[in-house]
Amino acid sequence: MGNCQAVDTARVVIQHPNGKEEKLSCPVSASYVMKMNPGHCVSLLISTTALSSASSGHGGPLRLTRIKLLRPTDTLVLGHVYRLITTKEVMKGLMAKKCSKLKKESKGSDDKLEMVKAINSTKLDNEDQEKERSRISRSWQPSLQSISEGGSS
């Protein structure tokens, strides 16, 4: 009777981008979740609490939530909360991280940074066009040829 809360915490919680929460009672692989939700990656939510400084204003603890992208071979563990993120959002985040890294490394070379931004934006556009092409090419279209009937009398 007193273990009702323990049953609730012993679940894998998957948060979908639309706000829906999926609760599983057994561990599953990340690849299984990705197959069930094409176009999405699985990430682990990591919450940390830091003591805030005078910059936050109210002086209370500051709660930070970070995400860690999981590999398809990783297993989703009971008691953790996971979030599905679209692959497009993941690519945007990785590109932003790459741009900030380049900005730190070379403060004077703005041309290089602009070039990387331009290349990355065209990559996203090309991915969208490729998805559209594959969606269109998947539709089946019959190829009918006329057959001449040979009549012998």
How would you sum up this structure, described in words?
It comes from Arabidopsis thaliana (Mouse-ear cress). InterPro entries: PADRE_dom (IPR025322). The protein has helices at 4-9, 30-36, 87-105, 110-138, and strands at 12-15, 21-24, 28-29, 40-51, 61-69, 75-76, 81-86. The chain is flat and about 95 Å long. By secondary structure, the protein is α+β, with helices and mostly antiparallel strands. Helix 3 packs antiparallel against helix 4. The chain has a domain at 12-50 and 62-103: Roll (Ubiquitin-like (UB roll)). The model has no long low-confidence stretch (mean pLDDT 75). The strands form 2 sheets. Strands 2-1-7-4-5 form a 5-stranded mixed β-sheet. The N and C termini lie far apart (91 Å).
Summed up, what is this model?
The protein is α+β, with helices and mostly antiparallel strands. 40% of the residues lie in helices and 25% in strands. It has a domain at 12-50 and 62-103: Ubiquitin-like (UB roll).
Features:
alpha+beta, flat, D-ribose-binding periplasmic protein, two-stranded antiparallel sheet, 5-stranded mixed β-sheet, Ubiquitin-like (UB roll)
Tally of helical runs: 4
Radius of gyration: 25 Å
Strand content: 25-35%
What is the rounded distance between the termini? 91 Å
Overall SS class: alpha+beta
Tell me the overall shape.
Answer: flat
Average of per-residue pLDDT values: 75
Largest sheet: 5 strands, mixed
CATH fold node name of one domain: Ubiquitin-like (UB roll)
Counted beta strands? 7
pLDDT below 50 for ≥5 consecutive residues: which ranges? none
State the CATH class of one domain. Alpha Beta
Oligomeric state = single chain
Q: Which CATH architecture of one domain would you pick?
A: Roll
